[in-house]
Amino acid sequence: MTVSNLTRSVLFVPASRPERFAKALASGADIVVVDLEDAVAPADKLPARTALKQYLEDHPGASVIVRINAAGTGYFTSDLDLCRQQPGVKAIMVAKAQSVEVLQLAADTGKPVWPLVETALGITELPRMARVKGVERFCLGALDLGVDLGVKPDTAGAQLLLDRVRCELLLQSRVAGLEGPIETVYPSIDDETTVEQIARQASEMGFAGMLCIHPRQLPPVHRGFSPEDAELDWARRVLAAAEGAEGAFKVDGRMVDAPVIRRARLILGQAADTATL
């Protein structure tokens, strides 16, 4: 059971700020994640969980994902109980995902599971975690992962290593038949140019969307995950030429066969999904 047809933007909102829930849901984000983990101080964990429960009961039409605390924190079981009991929780994001057993506990709630991969052990366990029944898609948590691996942030070396991780996420997702993974957050909320560049590169790699920390990031993320005008024009011309063609043919001097036609249909389908919003 998927949460949304579109997953370009996945917006976090702290569970400790219930006054922001409605704003997040009305922000235009494709998916809202209510965060019980990093965004909530230890002393606020219980009040935050209670606030989320109350909001979902008061707003039966609300649909959110919940990022729960990692196993072993003392909050994990209570977070799972909340998710199990609330119909408005459409999926569970498991922080610091690195254990098949923990993911199985989350899946036993009957909700789709989105493991957030942000440790070295999580990377090595990807093949096994991808095959847990109930896991829907992976998310990348590059900030925590970088700390765990000891890389220097914002360097060419860090980028090289994280791109290697991205490739592994994509490959393991494809082999296991999972939905496309979700790109990590970008910590600046004012640099729209860089946010759009990151989103477009992630889209080009095969990622399905990007984690966001502020509504201001939504427009550049949506642009980055939407086909450009030149792509749409090419796709339309490919499909128009394919109508009367038998076998392979050429468009713009390049051969077009079945895989290229499928790509053109995917581009136009993506544009159609966006146009319905």
TrEMBL record:
Its cofactor is Mg(2+). Gene3D superfamilies: Phosphoenolpyruvate-binding domains. The keyword Zinc does not apply. It holds the Pfam family HpcH_HpaI. GO terms for molecular function: lyase activity. Residues 8-215 form the HpcH/HpaI aldolase/citrate lyase domain. The keyword Lyase applies. Keywords: Lyase, Magnesium, Metal-binding. SUPFAM superfamilies: Phosphoenolpyruvate/pyruvate domain. It comes from the Bacteria. This is HpcH/HpaI aldolase/citrate lyase family protein. It comes from Marinobacterium aestuariivivens.
